[in-house]
Amino acid sequence: MLIRTVGTTAQRTRELVTVNANAQLQKITFVVSVVLINMTFYSILLVSVMFTGHLGHDVYLARATLGNSWANVTGYAFLVRSSHALRVLSPANSLSANSIIAPFTGMSGALETLCGQAYGARLYRMLGLYLQSSLIMSAAVSVLISVLWCFTEPLLLLLRQDPEVSRAAASFVAAQIPGLFAFSFLQCLLRYLQTQSVVTPLVVCSVAPFAIHVALAHLLVNVMGLGLAGAAAAISATFWISCLMLLAYVLRSGEFAETWKGFSVDAFKYVLPTVKLATPSAVMVCLEYWAFELLVLIAGLLPNSTVSTSLIAMCSSTEAIAYMITFGFSAAVSTRVSNEIGAGNVDRAKNAVSVTLKLSVFLAVSFVLLLASGHRLWAGLFSGSAAILSEFAAITPLMMVSIVLDSAQGVLSGVARGCGWQHLAAVTNLVAFYFVGMPLAIFFAFKLKFYTRGLWAGLICGLTCQACSLLLITLRTKWSKLAEAMQEEKANYVA
Fold first, then answer.
1. Neighbouring residues of 82: CB distance < 8 A, sequence distance ≥ 6
2. How far apart, in Å, are the Cα atoms of 341 and each of 88, 110, 394, 413, 493?
3. What is the largest CA-CA distance in the chain?
4. Fewer Cβ atoms within 10 Å of its own Cβ: the N or the C terminal residue of the chain?
């Protein structure tokens, strides 16, 4: 009997270890897939800019970069939740005054809360209704952005951009208006599938269109000689290809029979709840986005502004690339937390937060150690200036600290989205960056004359305040009340 009991216990232990190993493997696969998807979609815009840069004159690159920057901060940034990826896409936008006018960002962030919790609660029809309500909201926002894009040239001139470059940038942006609608719908579909932990089709529907985009951009720009217009048209066409591929998969796959019941007028009832979550989600990310852009503008006021501005832009881009690791974990913890809250499994939700936070910080530390040993090589990819290389070496220790803090706050921001705390995160970002970070950055840079290092030290203070505040909110969370509130709301949901 004892032998049988020991054997049974050993077998259960092996089964438990196998289950845990499979769960960890699935989590890693999810994270890697999300990072790949995100980078692929943003690389679509980058490739078009790169093609225009080889048209034979630097002015073409300037036109495309300005147009791309304008499209990012006034359009595409409305519709996604990760501003860090935008900083990877076009570091040059940090040097443009138009970077400070981005009014909203992260319009699709509400679906992470709504769809994630509904899926965990097995209210499957709600996912389809929330998706439709988000599509309606995104379409309305896209119309407004399209109108704004029609006035790109006069607005850029108002911001004292070069007239010739502004004119070309306006045409570059105008050709992307059709793609803006596809991109907005695409973001909604991504969140809808992501909250169900469906990522493989997303990888296929991002990588395949990206390969098509490279060929299409070459055809339109180099073969047909359409220049900037061809590069922009390639962006629109690629986004529509990806959107239609993903939509066809959702409609034709039997996997979503329960979550997608077809178009319904009931979706209009949930437009307001979607907007209520999307607005603070947009503000939450936009405040952080502006803080990084504001640093670059302030750097232009420092002595030797050419070096200072280039250095801060390099640091911002490096921070953004490091954040792409965290981005996957942020999406994973948002999905897991919202699912577990919806299912009432508060212990699993808390465990997911703990494990994801530790893993993300560990990988961030690994990244900064790599940066510490290879910062000269990395900086050499941006500039050959001895002065910039020397300054980058001096600011690297500060940047290592900010990357680790950014990694922690990224995961905690994902927890906030999963729990539906976007409003708390928005207030946190306002206080952390604009009442703590930016004032200290100005004080350190100008009063204490630490210059660029002072600016980044101020940013670190803001990130510290942000991360600590979000951590405190997370630690003091009454998880059981979140689950109870979800259960109480089931009666109001459409079954």
1. 38, 106, 285, 327, 330
2. 33, 15, 45, 16, 16
3. 88
4. N
In a domain, 60, yes or no: yes
How many structural domains does the chain have? Answer: 1
Round to whole Å and give the CA distance between 127 and 111: 9
pLDDT 10s digits, 7-41 = 555 555 554 445 455 556 666 777 778 778 877 87
31-45, 342-356, 359-373, 426-440: range with lowest mean pLDDT: 31-45
CA end-to-end distance (rounded Å), the chain: 49
Enumerate residues 6+ apart whose C-beta is below 8 A from 134. Answer: 108, 110, 111, 188, 191, 274, 278
Q: 493 and 348 in contact (C-beta within 8 Å)?
A: no
Closest CA to 405 of 462, 335, 474: 462
Burial 154-181 (b: 16+ CB within 10 A, else e): ebbeeeebeeebbbbbbbbbbbbbbbbb
CA dihedral 366→370→373→379, nearest 10 degrees, is -140
In a domain, residue 494? The reply is no
Does residue 39 lie within any of the structural domains?
yes
Distance CA 277, CA 95 (A): 31
